[in-house]
Each structure stands twice: as structure tokens, then as C-alpha cells.
Amino acid sequence: MLNRRQVVQSGLALGAMPIAARMALTQGKPPIRIRYSEVVRAIYYAPTYVAMTKGFFRDAGLDVALMTAQGGDKSVAALLSSSADIALAGPESAIYVQNSDSPAKIPIFGVLTQADGTMLVGREKVDRFDWQQLKGREIRSIRPGSTPDLFLEAALRKNGIDPTTEVKLVTNIAIPAQMGSWLAGQYQYAIFQEPDASQLELDGKAHFLASVGEAVGYMDCTSFMATDKYIRDNPEAIQAWINAISTGRSSGRRPARRRRS
Fold this sequence. Notes:
- The chain has helices at about 20-25, 45-55, 55-60, 70-80, 90-100, 145-160, 180-185, 195-200, 210-215, 230-235, 235-250, and strands at about 30-40, 60-70, 85-90, 110-115, 120, 140, 170, 190, 205-210, 220-225.
- It is an alpha/beta fold.
């Protein structure tokens, strides 16, 4: 069976600066305050949490305040209203703003995850899951046009199912209410992120069927973005952010084992 804890891989679009350069960047300067808005709380964003708890942001000269938006639309709103400096959201958010009438744009400057992390679960355990079993069924998805919803639609199409005519995607359940709606018995199928998917399975409330990320393949899923003005005015803060995230990611890797001769 698929080990879904190995499905999601983390990646960064920008490399870290050498240690000497980082020290020169921060030495003798007060820390830069960063108001950071993450789209949701998820274990896939571990490099960020490691950077916070291990002091890597502090070492890079940053003072980070974390807030969880519970939705990419809310992360974008925080950036555009200047209540957040950096946000983590699906790359579609930057595209929507780019194509809008907003004078401010939110370019992507780094990538955190390179695969979708949602898991498709069902109420009944099956010995062998086939995506064709979903035809004619309701699937609780996430907000229309969000990254999880777009990836689920892509997974359905890759498995021969038209998401607009052959299934019904329920997209009107707010993120904080999704667990409650499932436990209340609504819908036969749904997508959840970890650790919710595993917890539901451990509690006997759902059964894992498929990884959306494995079905779609590797591509940018959640990205760091900021307004074009903030990036232009704060290049040192942006580079320091990438440095800290890169250090947080590297610190979580297992050391290579020495091969016996």
C-alpha cells in the first residue's frame, strides 16, 4: 500500500546564501519583522515550523509572526490589505491577482511543496480502489479554484472522469467546518490533508483510497509570495526568508549512512 507520508516532497525555488554572507547580512542590524500568513496548518510546511522553533529565522535576522488564514483567498486578502508581508498559498492565487484589476501584484519568490498533499478518503474500506468508483458520487472538495480543488479535478481527468459532469464536487464547506461535516455523515467521499486523513483512519471514521498528489505528479503546490512592492523594497528580507527555510528543510534530513566496505 502507498506510504502517503512519503508522497509530498519539499522544494525551494531559491538557494541559500553561504554562511559568511548570512552573517554579514544580519550582523549589527535589528531583526526585520515579518508578518507571515500560511494558507492552512499542515505537516507539509514543516520546514517553516522548524525554522521558527529552531531559531533559523532569528539567525537570518528575521522576527516572524505566524498567522493561519484558513484559505488561499484570505492569505491573498492579507497581502493586498498590507496586514501580512509574506504568504504561503497555492500558485493559482498569484495568477488570479496577476489577471485581476488590482494595481498590486503578488509574485511568487519561492516554492515550499512540489506535490499536492491531499488524500482521498471514503467511508467504506475497499480492497482495491479504482477511480471509476467515483462516477455519479459526491466528493467533498475545497473552495472552487483553490489548489486542492484544481488538483483533484486534474486527478479525476487523468483517470478518465469528467469532474464537471460525472461527479459532483461539493466546494461550499469552509475549511474549519470540513472535519465536522464528515463526522456528521455528510458525503461518501472527501479530500483531507494530513494529519486529519490519518487520524480519521486511525479512529475508524474514514478509509484511505488514493493520494491526489501521486495521481497528478510533481508540480508546484504551495508557494511563498509577497506584493511586488514588498519584494522590491525588501530584497534582503526575501533572501533571508529563503535562507531560513532552506536551513529548516536541510536540518530535517537524515544523515547519510556510511557504506560498509
